[in-house]
Amino acid sequence: MSVKIYRVSGEVILRNGANMKFTLDIPGLKPEEAIERVYSNLSGIHRVKRGNVRIKNIEVINPKDTKNSLIQVLWREKINEEI
Hints:
single chain, Ubiquitin-like (UB roll), three-stranded antiparallel β-sheet, elongated
């Protein structure tokens, strides 16, 4: 199995009642792993319960299309090692 980059988007209801849209690029082996990471990140940062996180879309993307700078750096390093 190889690690894929998943783009997960959805909405979260914050503690003050406001809705916030999100899009996160998460590495994982399976979509379930990426979803779990999203729940963990959002509940840790914003202190929201999992029931307040609504995931609307999850898709596999090319690593060079990610907006996450850490993933971009790691992907470039992997490409350089293969050369």
